[in-house]
């Protein structure tokens, strides 16, 4: 049978999502390898899982979606409890259910929703879930305005890790909104049909450079037009959370 589930995990505990193999053995603990080992123990058979996308080392998730095949019918409650127990509090699954055999967690996604949090002063309780940027006087109005330049379909080749694999780098961003929940943090809400490797961190880093006055408004468009000159900031991973992946029926 074909199954799917949601999972959340503490990104700082893993070397990203994807399994990293060396000589047939897992080199570092990743979310995928940890979940596959938990399913192997719980179900007493190897299980290969496929996520909606890969998150980098240090990036968290609250709504990652996963599918897998299992030769038989699962006891849903027992399986969820077993996997969550084996996850040691670092990764949890929920909403486990059978689904149509054609469902694909990666290719059937309508859009992904991320949040990125910046702290404008040092924090203790939340430091693992945001970027202490060291700048207490960010121009949030300028950042909000500049963020609108990302909306729509663009070629994000210059907002990701360099690549020459021939695959498309076109992405459509449908929301890039800034929320100010208190006097020491700013939260970006970002939705798009797909995201490239480290794309969100590159976008947030550029907005940070504008907000602190390093570059003038219009920097995003200059980068799209390949007319930008200068070094750019890459936002660190701990501020990023994959909040949700939306599907037609899930």
Q: What is the straight-line distance between the termini?
A: 17 Å
What is the tally of beta strands?
A: 12
Q: Could you give a short account of the major beta sheet?
A: 10 strands, mixed
Task: Count the DSSP helices.
Answer: 5
Instruction: Look at the structure and give the mean pLDDT.
Output: 95
Helix content: 10-25%
SSE pattern? EEEHEEHEEEHEEEHHE
Task: Offer a few descriptive terms.
single chain; 250 residues; alpha+beta; ten-stranded mixed sheet; two-stranded antiparallel ribbon; 5 helices; globular
Please provide a written account of the structure.
It is a single chain. The mean pLDDT is 95. The protein has 250 residues and is an alpha+beta fold. Strands 1, 4, 5, 6, 7, 8, 9, 10, 11 and 12 form a ten-stranded mixed sheet that branches. It has five helices and twelve strands. It is globular and about 60 Å long.
SSE diagram, text form:
Blueprint: E1 2-9, E2 21-22, E3 25-26, H1 31-43, E4 49-51, E5 60-69, H2 76-86, E6 91-98, E7 111-119, E8 131-132, H3 140-147, E9 152-155, E10 170-182, E11 185-192, H4 199-211, H5 219-224, E12 240-246
Parallel strand pairs: 5-12, 7-8
Antiparallel strand pairs: 1-5, 1-6, 2-3, 4-5, 7-11, 7-12, 9-10, 10-11
Helix pairs in contact: 1-2, 3-4
Please summarize what this structure is:
Helix content is 20%, strand content 30%.
């Amino acid at each position: 049978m074909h199954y799917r589930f949601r999972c959340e995990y503490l990104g700082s505990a893993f070397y990203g999502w994807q399994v990293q193999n060396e000589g047939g053995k897992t080199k570092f603990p990743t979310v995928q390898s940890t979940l596959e080992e938990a399913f192997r123990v719980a179900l007493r058979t190897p299980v290969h899982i496929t996520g909606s996308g890969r998150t980098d080392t240090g990036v968290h998730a609250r709504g990652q979606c996963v599918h897998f095949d299992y030769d038989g019918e699962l006891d849903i409650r027992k399986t969820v409890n077993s996997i969550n127990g084996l996850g040691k509090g670092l990764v949890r699954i929920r909403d486990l259910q059978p689904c149509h055999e054609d469902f694909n967690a990666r290719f059937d996604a309508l859009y992904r929703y991320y949040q990125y949090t910046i702290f404008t002063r040092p924090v203790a309780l939340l430091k693992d879930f945001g970027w202490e940027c060291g700048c207490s006087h960010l121009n949030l109005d300028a950042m909000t305005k500049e963020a609108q330049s990302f909306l729509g379909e663009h070629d994000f080749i210059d907002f990701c890790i360099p690549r020459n694999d021939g695959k498309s780098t076109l992405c459509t961003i449908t929301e890039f909104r800034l929320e100010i929940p208190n006097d020491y943090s700013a939260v970006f809400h970002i939705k798009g049909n797909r995201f490239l490797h480290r794309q969100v961190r590159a976008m947030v880093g550029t907005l940070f450079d504008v907000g602190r006055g390093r570059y003038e408004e219009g920097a995003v468009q200059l980068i799209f037009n390949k007319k930008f000159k200068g070094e750019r900031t890459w936002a660190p991973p701990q501020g990023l959370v994959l909040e949700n992946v939306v599907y037609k029926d899930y």
